[in-house]
Amino acid sequence: MTRDLGRRRLFWSAASLPLAAFPHRADAVGYPSRPVRIITQGAAGSGPDVVARLVADKLSRHWQQQVSIVNHPGAGGVAAARAAAAAEPDGYTLYIPTITTFVIMPEVQRDLPIDMNRDFVHIGFVAETPMMFATSPAIASGSLSEFVALTRKTPGGVFYAANNHGSLPHLTGEMLRARAGANITFVPYPGALAGLQDLAGGRIGMIVESVGALTGAVRGGSLKPLAVASTQRLQSLPDVPTASESIPGFEAMGWFVLSAPAKTPADIVLRVNQDLNRMLAEPDLVDRLQDLGAFPRQLSPAETQAFISKEDRSWRPKVRELGLAHPGSAPTR
Fold it and tell me: Which residues are CB-neighbours of 20 under 8 A, at least 6 positions away?
């Protein structure tokens, strides 16, 4: 993917949402006056964690206040969502949820204690990142199609690592099984680091994770990339083919947004949105994100909500087609 294509959505309109759309309880002058924390559902070293730390570092420098990352992995994202929703809506607890939390979790888990659109205000978009299929350098397969053929020849098939049940990496692996006929079995892991350890030990044959979580291992030579699930090859990994080169039309893009508990004051929401978009326009952060295969966008709160709604309509039917949705899940909005 060329740099121009990598930036293709970077300069979307950042028009502000009217203040009346949010409860107005405080003034953003002087915000933040104390440390801010950002909750993420990702374990240390996972895609959400890597992206969250880059954003936190930038905001910390801009605000001249510490912005720390709080990892709440577990329960397919529910643990992080509950912790974020229960926080005081004062702008000092932010939250970076993923596509898993918005689209997949409501389909695969019954009786969720949170509602992502009721319990949060969505401040802005952060970045999108493709999923990657990768294996051990000891595996002879040099391409995704060759790996799929190998799984078919292997008695009992091949185990693959992905984040928890119902995560986007899990959904991506199941899409490969369904669309390419791969003989693979899902093994849940709390994060990429644990999966990489078992891949190196030969206990599993493949890992599915975001590009950002696997790039370091790929460059270090301990991981062999098979394909990225983006529409075009990435500039940062130009020799890695896309999944669609083996399976036409195959695409799986994860994404991250910045949210806050519902009833966070409107002027703080807009202040954080403006600061976030300013950070996402800075070339050094753009370069660092793109180097990890993550592509930022500058969106207003209203545009972020519209994007989430569009993704919801696109992905929920796929969850059901793969048989991952619980019986009686709500119809696609």
Answer: none
Task: In whole angstroms, give the CA distance from residue 242 to residue 143.
Answer: 10
The reply to whether domains 3-129+254-321 and 130-245 share a CATH topology is yes
Closest CA to 139 of 94, 74, 202: 202
* CB distance 166 to 78 below 8 Å: no
Tens of pLDDT, residue by residue, the chain (333 residues): 444 444 444 334 334 444 334 444 446 788 999 999 999 988 787 778 888 999 999 999 999 999 999 999 877 788 899 999 999 999 999 999 988 888 888 887 777 888 888 999 999 999 999 999 999 998 988 899 999 999 999 999 999 999 878 788 999 999 999 999 999 999 998 778 889 999 999 999 999 998 988 988 999 999 999 999 999 999 889 999 999 999 999 999 999 999 999 999 999 999 999 999 999 999 999 999 988 889 999 999 999 999 999 998 888 888 888 887 766 555 544
DSSP letter, residue 102 = I
Q: Is the dihedral of CA 306, 322, 218, 244 positive or negative?
A: negative
Q: Which CATH architecture has domain 130-245?
A: 3-Layer(aba) Sandwich (3.40)
Residue ranges per structural domain of the chain = 3-129+254-321, 130-245
- Which class for 189: exposed (0-12), middle (13-18), buried (19 or more C-beta within 10 A)? buried
C-alpha 333/C-alpha 325 separation (Å) is: 15
**Omega of the bond prior to 32 within 30 degrees of 0, cis?**
yes
271 CA to centre of own chain:
24
| C-alpha span between 96 and 122 (Å, rounded) | 10
Domain boundaries 3-129+254-321, corresponding CATH code: 3.40.190.150
